[in-house]
Amino acid sequence: MWKFLVRRILLSIVILFFVSLIAYTIIRALPTSYVEGIARERASLPGGKSYTEWLDQLNKIYHLDGGVIEGFFGWFKDSLLKGEFGDSWKFNVPVVQKFKEVIWDSFFLGLISLILELVIAIPLGILAARKQYSKTDYAVSVFVLIGISLPTFFFATLLKLGFAYKLGWFEPVGKVSRYYDQLTPVGQFFDVASHFVLPVVTLTIVSLGFLMRYTRTNMLEVLNSDYIRTARAKGLSEKTVINKHAFRNTLIPIVTIVGGTLPGLFSGAMITEQLFSIPGIGYTAYQAMIVGDIPFSMFYLVFLATLTLIGTLISDILYAVVDPRVRVN
Fold first, then answer.
1. CA dist., res. 319 & res. 1, Å (int)
2. Domain total for the chain?
3. Mind listing the pLDDT tens digit for each residue in 189-200?
4. Does residue 33 sit within a domain?
């Protein structure tokens, strides 16, 4: 196991290096240049340097005066190796500080959605498998296929139109209302909760389809296994067969999927956060990218790549842990 972990960690470091290089190349190719905006703003001040002088100085500071490879290694040496990602050009604060301010909104949004997804998708998948080709199976399949097929922006717009603008039950955008500071602690909690309802529903509905179909497929495979037929032949009740024998083995691949999604709780939901103006890491990263904020954008993309690698490693380890037939050599 330890040799496997060391080998995977070393491989992950190599992958992270090349992913960072690709991300940096893409960001440098964006038509937006925040440095040019800063140079233009400072050049307009009385008694200041010219636009060209400011631009040359800023490009040199941020390693933008050379090619992409040269600039990447300059960023890699100053930021990734030293762990000092500098200041965000968009928010004028250290990148890590801004990250700490916004990450928890994304975390709680993702955590609540994941819990609801597990609570809804797994029982629906088992129910559909137990009643294969019945009206229940078709109804569940149609429900989840609608969730999979609807684009996030379209479904979120429908929710805001119906429950926010028409019925007025929830707030359409933002994290808190204008009277948040005047509320009691309990009132502040429910105020934030009312703003999170529609984003959570959006994330849950558009995400549970894959897990439900995966659960149904694995449950059908387990129910057709020899040991399930043997358990039924022994006279065990259908409830015992499903809950004690089939369900336990169905959870093995599901655990690996869930383990791989856990790091994603910190990655944010860029589209959903943008549509509902939730100031999470996804929304903040989008605001930084559209203006060419290289320090924050690179930090976010490297962070996403690291989470993906960690999630893959967790999935492999969990599969070996929950399934005694699997051993890591």
1. 13
2. 2
3. 888 888 888 999
4. yes
